[in-house]
Give the backbone structure.
Amino acid sequence: MVYEAFLETVKNSLKETLGAEFNLSLQSVQKNNGLLLDGLCIGKAGERSAPTIYLNQFYQEFRYGRPLEDILSDILSLYHDSLLPVPSLFEDLLLPDQVKSKVIFRLINKTANEELLKTIPHIPYSDLDLALVFCLALQKTEDSLMTALIHNSHLNTWGFSTEDLFLAAKTNTPRLFPARIRSLSEVITDIAKETLEKELEGAMEDFFDTPPMSPPMFVLTNSTGMNGASSIFYEGILKDFASANDSDLIILPSSIHEVLIIPYNDTISLEDLADTVFSINQEEVPEEDRLSNHIYYYSKSKSSLTIAFTSSAPIGTKNP
């Protein structure tokens, strides 16, 4: 079954299962780094929001022999487990004061998201090839977070400027998602370590040979571990860490979710580090989660962040 036929079959099969009170539609959604995903939007009569479930990975499973019935069952489970915003949120989104308390920022690659950035308010850092974009933190539970990307059209509705969003997000993001810095060795030995951090252990041990974790590395993220790379723009976070270590800092952008920090010393090869980051991006980090192939340098004396080593390889690739 070709891809387009698979999408239609899934939609029609679930429509038949769910019944007439449900509306199902296929949507192409632009994600981070130019990645386009095909989603199935499942809406129910009387509800003001509808979850979108992405089908690309399910098609790959189907191609490798997974029965369609199992795939349909999983999609239904994802739909029933989806977190929907409480009705009062929609009224809040019309009130500028309510909106301002929910604005947060996230960090993405600037070059890989040129088309997306044309449609959304953002703060560009062209000298770093990064950009801060803005979302609304709608609902947060112990194990999930619902956010909505802010588009240019929203600014007219609320009467906001990009600067208004930035000022609100500068306060809200550290408050809602406090920064967390731990040694990489501590993260690796933590029972609840993330899959990416497991991969980083092997990659970094291979690169630095023995003893592992030399030079010392630290993981900077936020309290949720999601979109935590933006923590580098929290006020004072790099300055305080550099002062505590009495050192300039090397920043390795391991993903949009976290960065690695290395106190600088002149035995470190920036070119080799850049090669390692590029290799990990290509082999271990999902395309949507990649932040940059560049290595960054924080100067303690200048309180400035710059690119320490430039990679010519693009961070994002287009779907075949």
